[in-house]
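Problem 12. The chain below contains 421 residues. Write out its predicted structure in token notation.
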Amino acid sequence: MTWALPAIAAILLAYAAISGRTAGTPITAPIVFTVGGLLLGASTVGLIDVHPAAETVKLLAEVTLTLVLFSDASRVDLSALRAEIALPARLLGIGLPLTIAAGFGAALLLLGDLAWPEALLLAVILAPTDAALGQAVVTLPILPSRIRQGLNVESGLNDGICVPLFLIVLAIAQAEAGAIGGGAAARLVAEQIGYGIVSGIGAGAIAAAILVVAGRHRTIDPLWAQTVPLTAALLAYTVAVPLGGSGFIAAFVGGLTFGAIRHRGEVNHSDGESSDGADLLDEAGDLFNAITFIVFGAVLLGPALGHLSWAVLGYAVVSLTAVRMVPVTLSLIGTRPRAPTVAFLGWFGPRGLATIVFVILIFEESGELPHEELLLTTAVITIGLSVLAHGLTAAPLADRYAKWFRHHPRGEGVMAPDPGR
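Solution.
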């Protein structure tokens, strides 16, 4: 642990020095951070030698996901999104449940040692997508707006949707394994969801009211306004956890509440001088996200490679292909999409931050599941493969799809381009 922080800082500084040159190339930030962590981790030179269940690792993962969940949820502007809601609604409402079902079936087929609750837990853990692993896909302006926004909104919302599902299925798996009783599991889930929702609404409403009211009366300094959403995210989490609630649910609900009240306040009283603090929240989230991928490479991926098997690798490949692509295809039935669009949307469902945090939370409950090592190894290998495969293909495939889209007839259902484009 002595050299862990200097090693992490060195990786961050090294990437900062070349970040301008790697933008738009197949060498993405998550690839650099994961490989950097892997090279300096416990399985190699040992500079970053921390146990996955260590309190520092757990705290890092929780803070990172809290900031990302709050940030993503706070950006949801239903009035602005209405024109482009069809695609993410299908991906979330149809594609996500089908992805979990497909992942569950594949786990039972390929990982026969897993009990059915463990197979379902693995499917839920690997269901959320992470746009950061293929950032070119959601940021390149040459891509159709509806494709970019659809994947971005899907990634931003499916983390929050999967958190309560993860808590429920984990409780079922623990009860099935005899780690906790069925009544205790139900009570635990109810408390985590209930207190999480209440804490999130309270924290989000207070923070938004401060920005709206203080901004209206010009009593808040713009520099301090930048700290409000960041503080609100931490407030939602730290209030929920002592009460027995889920801090992640609190962060997600808090972000939704904060965004809804703030957007309404801006509509009712817009003077062009409001500051919502999104920049500081995003920058903090990006920094913690980078550190999380370094730690992932060092303390999770390195040891997992030592337990790699053909069954685990096979499931990882299937999870990133058929388990994602078939549900996406089915979710788009009736919208008249063309094959390249379906393939593009299906391929870019990378697994990342939320899955890493779920894995670390299971490490914290070490020994409560009979086939825990197999479950965790499979999840970690799938993330590692996704970091590499989606990172390397994001820029070239985004450019190729954009060129194809420009040279073919437009107007395909929910993927129709913006008017005038």
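Discussion. The chain is about 75% helix and 0% strand. Students who got a different answer should revisit the alignment rule from Section 12.3.
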